[in-house]
Amino acid sequence: MNKQASTEEILGKLVSIPSITDRANEDVVAYIAHVAAPFARVRRLPNAAGDRTALLISVGPDERPGIVLSAHTDVVAVAGQPWTSDPFALDVREGRLYGRGTSDMKGFVACVLAALPAFAAAQPQTPVHVALSYDEEIGCKGAGDLVAAVAALPARPLVCIVGEPTGMKVKRAHKGKTGWRVTARGRTGHSALPHLAVNAVTALARLAAGLADLADDLKAGARDHAFDPPYATLHIGSIHGGGALNVVPDRAVMEFELRSIPGSDTPAVLRSIDAMLDGARAALKAQAPEADLMVEELSAYPALATAADAPEAAMVARLTGDNAPPGTIAFGTEAGLYAEAGIPTLVCGPGDIARAHKADEWVGRDELAACDAMLARLADLVRRPAADWITA
Ligand SMILES: [Zn+2]
């Protein structure tokens, strides 16, 4: 296929392929590879189980430092949401394109794929690498191998632009996040004889109280007023356990998360949390040999903290024409992973996170046009080595 598809045509096709998080993704990968292959080198990075594939799509010489355009191809499910139109059929109404993933973040993917012919025609001195992950919506689970592959390119990229929805504003920082699920196992028994049983709900209640105290400490600790709130937060999302008043519960489950601010001593906070978990486990085991505390890490991504005066931020601002100082975002992205790999990273893409994950998600035709224009400017710049146009 050498016909050059428009952004809207590609977005229509992408939306029609559901590509919901935590499912096999061969359909969306096959379509993207098909669109990209005439213009770019397509590298497939399958996971160990073989049911998910990330894509690294490159135009231009790997031996030169390039530009990474990063996105995830998975979308959140639509079950229970009151959609006006079919979420998996792009519906255009009054300049808005409705469909699951239009803002988060198939709109950006469509713009990037539609720009591949222009990147190829530019015969770039500065390569463009399109890095497409999976399972981002369940905690950046599908980006690890992809980020490693990008970092291991013969020349380390100079900048990464993560196209999450920011209304095409340049964003330089977000908090990091770690999520946990802990399961307490105790020993059941009659509520009249609690001394012979081990109460799993009580064990998690004590742990929850300790976490709440730590949350208070964090609130009084390090501050960065670029964020709202300006401190790290520790939040308990759920506790489930027990079924009847007259039975000692032998199982309880709690989920909680830490959102850390960049530059704060997150390892120390993580050590405090580990110490609390160890203490809760030891207290359970001391009461009965079968009692225990199981800990699962649900998701983890690092904070993003690109300097406000970084030359890469100014470069992306020039691409967008947005000359406001780069801001911060409240939501997490894969940007922290690229930054951790040593690649200066900014977040900038079409759409609005406030429209994401909900019924009637949409992206504006004007927003896609602004992203197309940014990529057209980039296609013009990559004719020359990046040293000529990324300057301090
Ligand atoms: Zn997203």
From TrEMBL:
MF GO annotations: acetylornithine deacetylase activity; metal ion binding
User: What transmembrane ranges does the database entry give?
Assistant: none
Annotated Peptidase M20 dimerisation domain ranges read 173-278
Q: Which cofactor does it need?
A: Zn(2+)
Q: Which biological process annotations from GO are given for this protein?
A: L-arginine biosynthetic process
Alphabetized, the UniProt keywords read: Amino-acid biosynthesis, Arginine biosynthesis, Cobalt, Cytoplasm, Hydrolase, Metal-binding, Zinc
Record InterPro entries: AcOrn-deacetyl, ArgE/DapE_CS, Bact_exopeptidase_dim_dom, Peptidase_M20, Peptidase_M20_dimer, Peptidase_M20A
Q: What is its EC number?
A: 3.5.1.16
Highest taxon in the source lineage: Bacteria
Q: PANTHER family in the record, alphabetically?
A: ACETYLORNITHINE DEACETYLASE, N-ACETYL-L-CITRULLINE DEACETYLASE
- Family assignment? Belongs to the peptidase M20A family. ArgE subfamily.
Put simply, this protein is called: Acetylornithine deacetylase
Q: Which organism is it from?
A: Xanthobacter dioxanivorans
Q: Which gene encodes it?
A: argE
